[in-house]
Structures are given as C-alpha cells and as structure tokens.
C-alpha cells in the first residue's frame, strides 16, 4: 500500500524532506479513495476504520517502513499527525520481545499460553499489547512533561484500543519538512553538545519515573528547532523487569556510540553515571491537559 501514496512525493532519507512537485497533488490518496476501494490489505482496513472513527482525514505520504511498523504522515482534525501502523505479526517476523516483557504479569493463563506459543490469536494479542503499551507510555510521559510526541487517541484505553494496530501521535516538524532523527543530521559542535545534554536529560527523566527506554539512541531521537524529542516506546521497561539494569546499561552504551558521529566521545559508563546523577535532579513540569 506504500507506493501509491508516494506518486507526487519524493522521499529523501537523508534530510527527511518530503519534496512535492509544484502542481498536481493527484498522487495523494483522497478520503474517497480510502473509503471506496475494497482491499484485503490490512493497512487499508485500518485506515478506513480510522477515517470512520474521525481520527483521520487523509494520508499524505509514507515516511518510513521499519521491521515492526510503517510510519505515515497524515492529517486529522487536530492537524498533522504521525500514523504508525504495526505490521501483521504473522506476515513478518517480529523481534523477540521477551527481554522487554519479562516481569510483566499476564493474569489470563490461556492468553499467556497463546502468546507463548505464538498462535494466530496469541500473535494478535502480542501486537495489540505493543500498540497499547506505546499509547500508555506516550500518555504517561506526555503528562509528566517529557519531550515526547503528543498521543492523539485516548487518554483512556477504551478510546485508543479502537485504533489498534495503529498508533496516532502528533507529527514533530511539519508536513513538508518532517523532523529528522538525530542519526540523520549534521550538527555544529554547539548543537551536538546541546543535543547530548538533552538526550541525557531525557534518559534521566525516564529513569526518574522508573523507566528504561530499551532502544535509546539517536535513531529514536528526533531533532527539531534545536530540541530533542524521544520516540518509539513499545519496548519501554519498568523496574519490575529483571533486565532493567542491563537494559539501562545497554541504552547508555548505544546512546554514547550513536553520538560518536557528532564528535562526542563519551564512554557508556560515563553516560550511565551522568544519567543517574541527572535523575536525582528536578523533574520536568507536568503538562496539565484540560478536558
Ligand atoms: N511523532 C513523530 N514525528 C515525526 N516523525 C516521527 C514521529 N514518530 C516517528 N517518526 C518517524 O518514524 C520513524 C519510525 O518510528 P518509530 O516509532 O521509531 O518506529 P520503528 O523504529 O519501530 O519503525 C522514526 O524513525 C521517525 O523518523
Ligand atoms: Mg525507531
């Protein structure tokens, strides 16, 4: 379902710039197309459902197709949004998530077994688990005042459960110039220092709340107007997880390694110490959302 949406868009992976030909926007999939075309494609089904639920009016372009999910730029009632659609677990191999899920308690024994045996139903449950986890974490972190994208369904699970297997959040950047990842930009030395400090603070903010990201590096940090935004939360782990300390250490190391290209040479140990020290400092101001 990807190429059709990209007819008039060109994706330049390096700069994350969506260049649009001046005149004809006919390559876009209009609402009418999305709702009229019957298709077995899982992506089309979910998009039609999101339109029907009033979350979405138009999908503008495919942004990135990863192993577990595809990210789209879309429009909705509250502006430009990032639509992340998780893949059908049966169609693609899903990364082994057991490290992150250890310590989680699944009360329903039959559900636990289905997931363990990776039956069709078990895979569906695992997939919704990832989507629901990503929303739950986004809401918690957003409310706590961290620099994360604002979730655009919820805040109650009964609302965001309707969008499975998609996660809707506010797009960082603009429709025409989506925020690049820190891994894709060139930074001046001063910007690199600032990005590093923000990345450390972000990891410390998570730690203060009892979380470890689980995949923390410049690949999951966006850079927009000199501000770092953390993304990609399904694998976030809590202190209940017996691998918490190991994940923390690993995140510190991958963060440090991913900053080498920005000219910063800091060891994983030093990074971890800095994060732990910052975690003792003041928390960000919580966001108050009015109903
Ligand atoms: N809120 C957002 N605003 C702009 N771009 C985003 C946003 N969320 C994700 N992206 C882009 O989509 C890509 C995939 O999202 P991510 O959550 O990292 O999923 P995954 O790495 O599992 O494919 C990111 O690398 C980033 O380029
Ligand atoms: Mg990612």
Automatic annotation (TrEMBL):
It catalyses: L-seryl-[protein] + ATP = O-phospho-L-seryl-[protein] + ADP + H(+); L-threonyl-[protein] + ATP = O-phospho-L-threonyl-[protein] + ADP + H(+). GO terms for molecular function: ATP binding; metal ion binding; protein serine/threonine kinase activity. Its EC number is 2.7.11.1. It is an enzyme of class 2 (transferase). Transmembrane segments: none annotated. InterPro entries: Kinase-like_dom_sf, RIO-type_Ser/Thr_kinase, RIO_dom, RIO_kinase. Gene3D superfamilies: Phosphorylase Kinase, domain 1 (3.30.200.20), Transferase(Phosphotransferase) domain 1 (1.10.510.10). Keywords: ATP-binding, Kinase, Magnesium, Metal-binding, Nucleotide-binding, Serine/threonine-protein kinase, Transferase. It comes from the Bacteria. The keyword Kinase applies. It holds the Pfam family RIO1. Residues 1-29 are annotated as: Disordered. Residues 17-29 have a biased composition (Basic residues). Residues 29-277 form the RIO kinase domain. Belongs to the protein kinase superfamily. RIO-type Ser/Thr kinase family. This is non-specific serine/threonine protein kinase. It comes from Deinococcus deserti (strain DSM 17065 / CIP 109153 / LMG 22923 / VCD115).
């Amino acid at each position: 379902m990807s190429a059709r949406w990209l007819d008039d868009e060109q994706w330049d992976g390096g700069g994350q710039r969506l260049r649009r030909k001046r005149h004809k926007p006919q390559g876009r999939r209009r609402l009418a197309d999305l709702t009229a075309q019957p298709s077995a494609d899982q992506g089309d089904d979910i998009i039609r459902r999101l339109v029907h639920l009033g979350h979405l009016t138009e999908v503008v372009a495919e942004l990135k197709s990863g192993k577990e999910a595809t990210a789209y730029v879309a429009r909705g009632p509250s502006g430009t949004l990032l639509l992340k659609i998780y893949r059908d677990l049966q169609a693609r191999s899903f990364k082994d998530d057991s490290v992150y899920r250890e310590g989680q308690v699944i009360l329903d024994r039959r559900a636990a077994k289905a997931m363990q045996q990776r039956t069709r139903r078990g895979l569906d449950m695992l997939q919704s688990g990832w989507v629901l986890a990503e929303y739950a974490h986004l809401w918690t972190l957003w409310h706590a005042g961290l620099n994360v994208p604002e979730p655009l369904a919820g805040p109650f699970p009964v609302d965001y459960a309707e969008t499975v297997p998609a996660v809707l959040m506010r797009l960082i950047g603009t429709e025409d110039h989506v925020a690049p990842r820190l891994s894709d930009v060139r930074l001046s030395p001063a910007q690199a220092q600032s990005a590093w400090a923000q990345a450390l603070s972000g990891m410390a903010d998570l730690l203060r709340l009892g979380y470890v990201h689980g995949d923390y590096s410049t690949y999951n940090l966006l850079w927009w107007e000199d501000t770092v935004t953390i993304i990609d939360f399904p694998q976030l782990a809590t202190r209940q997880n017996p691998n918490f300390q190991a994940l923390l250490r690993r995140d510190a190391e991958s963060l440090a390694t991913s900053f080498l290209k920005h000219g910063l040479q800091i060891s994983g140990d030093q990074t971890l110490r800095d994060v732990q020290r910052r975690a003792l400092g003041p928390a960000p101001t919580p966001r108050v959302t009015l109903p």
